Amino acid sequence: MKISDLLKLAFRNLMRRKARTALTIIGVVIGTISIVVMVSIGIGVNRSFDEMIMQSGSMTIIRVQKYGAIYDEDGNYVDSKEQVLDDSVVELIKGVEHVKAVSPVVNKYVRLTSGKYESGVTLYAMDCDVFEAFEFPPLQYGTYPTKENPSTIVLSPESMEYFYCFSGNNYQEKSIDPLTEKVTMQFQEYQTHPRKKEFKLDFENVAMMEQTDNWEYSYNIYMDLNYFREIWKKYANSLTLEDRKRALSSTESYEEIKINVDNINNVAEVQDAIEALGYATYSEMQYLEPLKETSNMLQMVLGAIGSIAMIVSAINIANTMVMSIYERTKEIGVMKVLGCLVRDIKRQFLLEAGLIGLLGGVVGILISYVLSYLINKYGAGIMGSLVGTGTSGDLSVIPLWLPFAAAAFGMLVGVLSGYFPARRATKIRAIEAMRTEG
Amino acid sequence: MDKEPEKIIELVNVKKIYRMGNEKIYAVDDVSFDIKKGEFCCLLGTSGSGKSTLLNLMAGIEKVTSGTILIKGKQIPKMSENSLARFRQRYLGFVFQSYNLLNSMTALENVEFPLVFKRVPLKKRKRLAKEMLVKVGLGRRLHHKPKEMSGGQQQRVGIARAFVAKPEIVFADEPTGNLDSKTTIEVMELIRQMARDNNQTIVMVTHDRSLATYADKVIHILDGKIQSIEEPAAENLPEETKAVECATEEIMGEEATQTTEEVKKEVTEKFVKEMKCPEPVQTFPEKGKVAVRVVKKTKQFHVPVQRNGKGKQ
C-alpha cells in the first residue's frame, strides 16, 4: 500500500471511534504536558543557578591563598593555616595537568583621589602574560599591559564610579572618567617617612574593561606584577627604615596564587592535585558543585514525575490499539484475503498508534507553552521561594529542542506501545478472523 | 475455443487433517482434480463435507497437510505469506457468503479496496471501481454503506470487489447462502456473465444443488472425498436438475411428521414418477438425513433431505 493510502486509512480508523481516540489523545496530551513543563522548570532552575554562578566569578578559577582554610570531612571550616606562597609554588602548580594558567597575585588596598573626590579599591597585581589565559573581559579602551609596555593600569567599570567627597556636612558622590580627569593612587599600608615626600602614582596609561556579570571584573583594578614591584620599591623608599624592610619582605611571598583550569569539569581534579601537593585551595566550583547537583537532581525528579504520566498514556495507547484490533479482527481477515501484505497491516496499526502519539504530543506542546507562560508570569514568586532561587530569571524555560523532542517522544511512545498490538494483528489467521462477527 | 484450454488449477492427493485431541479428522481426504481456464467449477456438498476447507486450501488461506496444489503453475502451499498476498492481489478474487464488506466504507471504497493493496493510483482505481459497480447495477449506490443496502445489493458489491482487479480466478464460498431464491438467480447470473466476459475461472462452493446448473463442472464432495465429478453437457442437464429440485422441495415441505421409512418411500415414488426415471432409484439413510440417489446413465444426483423440516434447507 502507498503511504498516502495508509495514512488515509489510519485517519479513517481513528475517526471511527472519535470519543475513544480523543480520550487516548488526551492521555498523551497530559503526558506530554507533564514532561515538557517539568523539564522546562528543571531547565529554568538550572539556568538560574548558572546565572548565579556566573555572577560569582569564573568557574574555572582555583585560588591558593596565604591563609588556606582547613575543612573537616563534611566540608565544615575548622581552622586556617598560613602557607608560604612563592615562585617555587607557582612553578610546582604549573606542572599540574589541566592547568591553563597560573599567576601569583598580590593585592593591595589603595586610595584613589581625583581633585577633592576620593575612593578606595583593591589593586591586583598579576603576571601580565596570563591576562589572556585568565579570560579577562574585552576592553572599552586601552590595551592590557605587556612586557614591553607594562605600566598600563586596567580599570574595571565600577571602580571609577563611587568617588565621594565630604565638604562640611555634605556627602557627594560622582563617577570619574580617567581619560579626562586626573586620578592619583596611593598605598595605605605604612606611614610615610616624615621627612620624605609621600609616594603618589598618577594614572597615565589606563585601560577600561567592559561591564560583565563577574564581580571580579567589576570593582577591582589590575596591574602587571613586575610594574607593581617597581612602584612598590619606590613606595618603600618613601617609608621609614623599619617599615621599608617590612614592606619589601611582604612582597616576597604572595597573598594568593590564581590558577585557571582548562575545563570546568577538571576543576575538582586539579584542586585535588594541588591539595595533594600540600596547599589548601579554594574555588567557586567547590561551593557550587553541590548546588549544581541539587539542581540536576531536581531536574531528574521533575522529569521522572513527568515520565510517569507518559508511561500511563503509553499503556493507554496500547489498550486502545488492542481494543481496536479486537473490533477489527474480521476486517483484518478480509484484508488479508483480499491480498493485503502483512507488512501493510502492521504499518497501519503502527501508524494509528503513532498518530495518536504525535497528535497528543503536538497538542500537549502547545498547551505546555501556555502553561509555561503562566508559570513565569504568576508562579515565579511562589515557586521561586520554594526552590530557593531568588533570581529574576524565568522559572520555566522551554528551549527550542524541547518541543521537537517531546513530539518525537510522543510519537515514539505511540509506535512502541502500538508495536505489540500491531504484531498481534498480523498474526491473526484470516480464516478465523473471517468467522468472527463484526 | 476449440483447443483444449490449459489447466489453471491442479490438485494432487491433497489432504487436510485436523487434530482434535487424539482424534484425526480428515477434512479433505486425498483429493485430486483439475480445473481448466475459463471453467465454472462447482464444489457441491453438504455442510461439513469439507468443500469450504478445500476452497480455503486452494486460496492459501489454510495450509494443506500433504499433497500439492498448483495454481498457474505455482505451489500454493509452499508460498510465503507475503508472496501469497501478492499472488492474491494479482490472480485471485473472492466472494463470500456473508459478503465480508467493510462496514465503515462506502460501496465504492469497498470495491476500490483490493486496488489499494495493488498500489493502483487513486483516480484510476476510483474509475475502475465505479465502472464495476455500474456493471453490477449499483451505479446509483456508490456512496451507500453496506448496512444501507439489501443482502442482494451487498453481494453485488462483493462481486464487484472480487472482479474489479480482473483476477484470473474467482473463488466464491456459498455466494448465495444468505440470499432468497430470486436474488440467488440474479447473483448467479451476474457471476456467470462476469466470468464469461473476461474468460475468468470460477470456483464456487455450495450446498445448493440447483446452483450446479450454472457450472461447467460439478465436483461432488462427501466426507472430504470426491464422490463424483460431473461435467454435464451444457444443454440437456438443466431440465432434469430442476425436476429433482422440485421433488425435493415438495417432500421437505411435509416431512416433519413422517418417519424415515415413509420419507424414503415417498421420495423414491416421486422421483420415479415425476422424472419418469426407468433406472432404479437408490435411497439410503445417512447421518440423520435421507439421501436419494438417482442413477441415470453417467449422472448421479445426490439429494440431501432432512428428516424433520428444521435446520438448513
Q: Characteristics of this structure?
A:
heterodimer, A: 438 residues, alpha+beta, 11-stranded mixed β-sheet, two-stranded antiparallel ribbon, 15 strands, B: 313 residues, alpha/beta, Rossmann fold, 2 domains, 6-stranded mixed β-sheet, 4-stranded antiparallel β-sheet, 8 helices, 13 strands, 29% strand, disordered C terminus
Brief rundown of the structure:
The complex is a heterodimer of chains A (438) and B (313). Chain A is of the alpha+beta class and 438 residues long.
What does this structure look like?
- With 438 residues, chain A is α+β, with helices and mostly antiparallel strands.
- Chain A has 2 domains: 3-55 and 290-435, no CATH class; 61-262, no CATH class.
- Chain A has 12 helices and 15 strands.
- In chain A, the strands form 3 sheets. In chain A, strands 1, 4, 5, 6, 7, 10, 11, 12, 13, 14 and 15 form an 11-stranded mixed β-sheet that branches. A two-stranded antiparallel ribbon of chain A has the order 2-3. Chain A has a two-stranded antiparallel sheet with strand order 8-9.
- Chain A is elongated.
- The relative contact order of chain A is 0.19.
- The mean pLDDT of chain A is 83.
- Chain B is of the alpha/beta class.
- Chain B folds into 2 domains: 37-60 and 79-225, Rossmann fold; 237-306.
- Chain B is built from 8 helices and 13 strands.
- In chain B, α3 (107-117) runs parallel beside α5 and α5 (151-163) runs parallel beside α6 (181-197).
- The relative contact order of chain B is 0.13.
- Mean pLDDT of chain B is 78; it is low at 233-258, 278-291 and 293-313.
- The chains are: A alpha+beta (438), B alpha/beta (313).
- At the A-B interface, α1, α9, α10 and α12 of A face α2 and α3 of B.
